[in-house]
Design brief:
about 350 residues, 5-stranded antiparallel beta sheet
């Protein structure tokens, strides 16, 4: 295996600027995420003036900044700019966490965002800078884990995820899920389709406009071609939240409800029992891969990330659940393959 190129955010900003076809504003400026909001503001104003030339003469008082969320990977800020007309433009500023380039391919993320945005997913990319990006502001609330198991929302998520999996993003379609570790899955014995997957569909990456009933998928930084079952199984694991309460993992009936709306969004009641069972086995095998993926991710973050989060504790929670579910899930797969045959 050849050496893997690690792209940092500064290089991505430079590549965006060098592309003659790129219409996305770019800047090499960076913003120190460790500063207080008041100390950060002058730098953000400078950044916005550099990115958006029509605001280059604006006064700092025309800008207001507030925290949207501080996750365990990124810091999200809402930046409001008062225009001369009196209108206020709202945008989302996303600051990458330090050292995240070791676990996130920013070049791939930037490319994917443009295609996913064109397909109607997430916020529009408005600018790229040294350690982050600027996107349009989504007027919606972020879901919490318990929202995801509500039948009406589960159906919406399933339908949206099916559409997401149908988006074609240029580049290699080789699944990015450690093939050398999960050879059982790579052999195709479960015949899992390869799709462009979100790979991080937790409640914090789902937003809902309650007035319009519109659901949004956001944050595609882990997006890549992967196995369909991994994306769904990973989503189900996130019902447990950061506390990893796996008693909240959806039961078979709840999963079948999701599968029906995923497989046939317009006619969910027409999905066959065999198709439901097939996706159930596929999803619950790749659920294991999800636990291993995030367990190893947590080990890397424990060493690299300065963010105040118990990554090592999170590693043990995910790895212990992997061990607890392993035999059950592999037995489920063997039983299915005995019943229907491989491939």
């Amino acid at each position: 295996m050849g050496a893997v190129k690690i792209w940092n955010a500064m290089e991505i900003a430079e590549v965006a600027g060098e592309s003659s076809n790129s219409e996305i504003p770019h800047s090499s400026l960076t913003v120190d995420h460790t500063l207080s909001l008041s100390d950060m503001k002058p730098r953000i104003v400078e950044l916005y003036k550099d990115l958006f030339k029509n605001w280059s003469n604006k006064d700092e008082s025309d800008f207001s900044i507030e925290t949207v969320s501080g996750g365990i990977t990124n810091l999200l800020l809402k930046v409001s700019v008062k225009e001369d007309s009196g209108n206020t433009i709202k945008m989302t500023l996303r600051l990458y966490g330090p050292n995240t380039e070791y676990v996130i391919n920013r070049e791939r993320e930037l490319q994917a965002i443009q295609y996913l945005s064109a397909a109607g997913f997430g916020a529009k990319l408005l600018g790229v800078f040294g350690n982050g990006m600027v996107q349009s502001f989504i007027h919606a609330r972020t879901l919490v884990p318990l929202d995801m198991r509500k039948p009406d929302l589960a159906a919406k998520i399933a339908k949206q995820l099916r559409k997401f999996h149908q988006v074609e993003v240029p580049g290699s379609k080789e699944p990015q899920l450690w093939n050398d570790i999960f050879k059982f899955f790579k052999q195709g014995r479960l015949d899992a389709p390869v799709v462009f997957a979100h790979n991080d569909l937790l409640s914090g990456n789902l937003m809902l406009n309650d007035d319009e009933g519109k659901l949004y998928f956001i944050d595609f930084e882990y997006g890549s071609y992967s196995y369909r079952g991994f994306d769904i199984g990973n989503h189900f694991n996130e019902y447990a939240g950061y506390d990893c309460d796996y008693s909240l993992y959806p039961n078979r009936d709840e999963q079948y409800h999701f599968f029906k709306h995923y497989l046939k969004p317009d006619k969910p009641q027409e999905v066959s029992e065999k198709d439901l069972e097939e996706l159930y086995v596929e999803t619950n095998c790749y659920m294991l891969a999800s636990h291993m993926y995030w367990a190893l991710w947590a080990l890397i973050q424990a060493r690299m990330s300065p963010i105040d989060f118990d990554y090592l504790g999170y590693f043990f929670l995910r790895y212990d659940e992997f061990k607890r579910q392993k035999e059950k899930c592999l037995s489920l797969a063997e039983s299915y393959l005995t019943k229907y045959g491989a491939g």
